[in-house]
Amino acid sequence: MQVKVKKFVHKLSLALLFTAVLCLSGCGDVRDIAVTSVEVESITPNGLRGVNVGLAVGIDNPAFQVELSEIEGSLELSGKVLGRMAMAPFLLHARSAETYHLKASLKIEQGVSLGELLALTDTETLNNCMVDVSARATLKGGVSKVLKFNDIPLTDLL
After folding, report:
1. Domain CATH code at residue 101
2. pTM of the prediction?
C-alpha cells in the first residue's frame, strides 16, 4: 500500500512540475527549459488528509532567471476535485542545469474516499484525470505574470 502511495505521489508531483514548466513555455527561450529528473526525497503525513512531499528535481534552464511563486494546482476526476497542491516558491537560475530541493503540500479534498484515491492506480482512471495549475512567474527585472492552465490531461504529463 505504501509503495502505491509513493508511486502516486511521485506521478502527481512529476505531473505538476511538468505543468509548471509548461506554464513557462509561453515565453520565447523558456520553451527549452526541461525537467530532467524527479525523485521523491520524503513523504510526511500532515493530518489525516494530507502529506508534505520533499522532491529533488533536476531542471535544465538554458534561458534567463525565473522565480516561480504562488504555485498551486488541483487534480480532478470526472469534474470532481480530488486534491489540491501548493508548492513553495523557488528560483530557476539562468543558464544552469541544477537539482532543486522543493517542498510541496498535497491535500485530499473533503468527501473523497480512499477507494477514489486507490482507483488512480488504474490506467483507465488516470485517462479521465485533469490537472489545473497556476503559478506566478517573475523575471529578474521584476516583471511578473500569473500563468494558468486548466484541464490538462494527467496522462499527457506523465
Report:
1. 2.60.40
2. 0.69
Rounded to 5 degrees, φ, ψ at 119 are -65, -20
Residues 138-150 have pLDDT tens digits of 887 788 888 888 8
Dist. CA 130–CA 74, nearest whole Å: 8
Query: What span, in angstroms and rounded, lies between the C-alpha atoms of 91 and 66?
Result: 6
C-alpha cell of 18?
A: 511538468
CA distance linking residue 15 with residue 112, whole number of Å: 20
Assign 18 a pLDDT band (cuts: 50, 70, 90). low
Domain count, the chain: 1
Distances (CA, A) of 93 to 17, 25, 60, 83, 139: 16, 16, 9, 30, 11
Q: What span, in angstroms and rounded, lies between the C-alpha atoms of 117 and 51? A: 14
Yes or no: say if 64 and 126 are a contact pair by the CB < 8 Å rule.
no
- Domain boundaries, position 81: 2-157
Rounded distance between C-alpha atoms, residue 133 and residue 24, angstroms: 12
